[in-house]
Amino acid sequence: MIPSMVIWGRLMVQFGFFDVEKRLARLSGLGDQLEAFSRTVDFEVFRSDLNRALAYSDRSKGGRLPFDPVLMFKILVIQTLNNHL
Q1: I want to staple 50 with a disulfide (CB 3.0 to 4.6 A). Which of 14, 21, 69, 84 is the partner?
Q2: What is the pTM of this model?
């Protein structure tokens, strides 16, 4: 599947250049949970505890960079609030 194309039934829709911005603006208008959390909760307070708890390796053997622990924590909080765990 081409990333910019979605097939619904028999109708093929190709997203335009500015569709991402439109979708993000629509989400903001509907009340995006990530934006609401960013305004009310300082998740950076948890960064040191998350880094200590996750105990990432020193990456001396290579490998890809780990996901940001604060982002993953935000995802878990939103999943818990929406009963998706």
Answers
A1: 69
A2: 0.60
